[in-house]
Amino acid sequence: MHIGPYKLTNNLIVAPMAGVTDRPFRMLCRSMGAGMAVSEMVASNSLLYGSEKTKRRANHDGEIGPISVQIVGADAKMLALAAKYNVDRGAQIIDINMGCPAKKICNVMAGSALLQNEPLVAQLLEAVVSAVDVPVTLKIRTGWDKLNRNALRIAKIAETSGIQALAIHGRTRACAYTGDAEYDTIAAVKASVQIPIIANGDIDTPEKAKLVLEHTGADAVMIGRAAQGRPWLFREIEHFLKTGKRLPPPQITDIHGVLLGHMQELYHFYGEHNGLRVARKHISWYTKGLAGSAQFRHHMNQLESTSGQLAAVDNFFSAQAQLGTTLQYIEELTA
C-alpha cells in the first residue's frame, strides 16, 4: 500500500476520530500493528492556530511516519492555509475530512455536508493539492442520504484533482453509524478509479477485514470504533491476513499492562488534570464486558486524582485475575 512516495508497513489504517486519535492513541495503535494512523481532525479556521488544543493536535513528537493529519473546513483559502500549517509542523500526508456526520460540522457546510456541493468539492481539493508538496488524501461517505449517493462522482473528482488515496465510510451522512456498511458501493468506486481505495465501516474482527478486502477489492481497510479499547486488533488482523489463523486473545494481565501504559502517556501528553479526564473513556472501553465493569466505571468516573485512577484500575484487574476472566466476551461483543 503506497500513498504518494510512502510505502505503508501494511494495509491497516487507524481511522481519524475526534477526541480519540490523539498522539498517544496513534502511537499505541502503530506499536500494535497499524500501518498508519490518521490524526483527529484539525479545524481550518486560522483563529484556532494559537489554541492549546490545536497545538496539541499538531504535536507529532516521536511518531513513526508517515504522519497523516486530517483537516476540516469549507473555505478553500483556509483549508490551503491549514494544510501548509500542518506540513510546516511535520505532517507528511494531509487528509481532508468530507465524511464527518456530526451536526456541528455539517451545519457549517463542512465534513459530509460538502458532498451536496460537487463543484465546491473540486475547488477545495484543488486548492489543498496545489498548496502543499505532500500527498493529499480524502475521506468521504457514500453520499448525503440514500437518495443522494454520489461516491462514484466524488471519487472521479478526487482523482482528477490530484488526491492520492480515498477512504470511504460505507454509509451516507444520514445513516450516521446505523445500518450495515455499503461494501458494494466501495467496490464500485474501486472499479471506477485508479487511486488507492481504503474501505471503512464495521470492520471489527480479522475475518471481517479479510471479507471486506476481498469483496471490495480495496487496497486497505480503515478501522475506527472497533479499536477503542482494543488496539491489539491491528496485530490480530495482520496475523490473520498473513496466516489465515487467529492469534490467541490477550490475557487479562496483557490488557492491564497496555491500559496502564496508555494512561501514563495520556497524563504526560495532556497533563494530569486533563489526562485524568481523557483517560476515563479509554478505561471504559478497555473494561467493557468484564465482570463488574459498569459499577467500576461509575466509581472510576468520580475519581479526581491520577493516583486514585491508577489504583482503581489496578484493583479492578486484580479482581479480574482472581476470577479467572478470559476474553471470550470479545467474541460475544463482535459476533
Can you offer a commentary on this structure?
This protein is α/β, with parallel strands linked by helices. It has 14 helices and 11 strands. The strands form 2 sheets. The protein has a 9-stranded parallel β-sheet. The longest helix is centred in the last third of the chain and has 19 residues.
Oligomeric composition of the shown chains: single chain
Structural class: alpha/beta
Q: What is the ordering of alpha helices and beta strands?
A: EEEHEEHEHEHHEHEHEHEHHHHHH
Which percent range describes the beta-strand content?
5-15%
Arrangement of strands in the largest sheet: 4-3-11-10-9-8-7-6-5
Helical residues, percent: 40-55%
Instruction: Tell me the radius of gyration.
Output: 20 Å
* CA-CA gap between termini: 29 Å
Overall average residue pLDDT: 91
- Structure summary, number of beta strands: 11
Ranges where pLDDT stays below 50 over 5 or more residues in a row are: 327-335
Q: What is the 3D form?
A: globular
Main sheet?
9 strands, parallel
Number of helices: 14
